[in-house]
Every structure is written in C-alpha cells, then in structure tokens.
From TrEMBL:
Tree of life domain: Bacteria
Entry protein name: PTS transporter subunit EIIA
GO molecular function, one term: protein kinase activator activity
Residue ranges of every copy of the PTS EIIA type-2 domain listed in the record: 1-147
Amino acid sequence: MDPHFTLEVEAVRVADIADKSAALRFLAQVCGETYGLDADQVEQALLEREALGSTGFGNGVALPHARLAGIQKPLAALVRIERPIDFEAADGLPVELACALLSPENAGATHLHALAALSRMMRDEQLRARLSAATDVEAIYGIVTNGQDRDAA
C-alpha cells in the first residue's frame, strides 16, 4: 500500500454516474461511509477546490482533492465510472476514473506527496487500461494496491 495515503477496499466502487457534480457527491458519500466523515462537508470541500479549476487530470482520469479538518492522514476513494462523463478535463476527454483525495487541513507537503503518488499511478497507461477493464471492486482494489506496491519497490 502507498505510504502517502490510505485507500480502503470499501472506498472503491463501480458506478453509473450522470455528471461531474454527481461524481463529486458520490465520492463524498463514499468517503463519508468508509472513513466516518460528514459527506456534506466532504462534498463542499471538493466543490470549493473544483471551483478553482477542474481536477480532470487527463487521459480519462480526475483527481478531485481537498483538505479537511478532523482527519489525521490522507484518505482516498476511487470510482470507475461505467459510462465516462465530462469533467472539463484539460485534454477534453471524458473521465472514467475519479479518485478523491482528502488530506488533513494543515497537511502541506503531506497533501502534495499524496497527490503526486496518485498522479504517478494514474499516468501509468497499463494500469489505467487494467482499471478500465476491471469489472468488480476487488479487482480494481487489487490493481491499485499491487501497482502501489510495485512503485514502492
């Protein structure tokens, strides 16, 4: 597992999501359920960050992120979107993988390291292809955690 952030298997989902705002709401709910956070607070934090500019990373990936009071370490949630959606990504491509990252409120470098680790992982073309082809949560979680282990070696 990546030492920069925590991703629980319960925070990995496959879902049919209509649009960007629904994706942010869904990720906030997943974070709330998995990590015991207030989903409305998470959604608001993600929306505030998104208002600064799209977190559509490119190549079908979005990395919405925010800093949040009351958490001790970076936490992640990942959803593979069944029918890719517009996320206003820099490259204009629709998004099928959205990975939310929540970091402690005052986690400057910690947040940046976690975001960089996710970014590196999602730039891996083979990993993205395997995630796109995965049909269930356990397979997606295995791909992500094995990819993290490989990168750490």
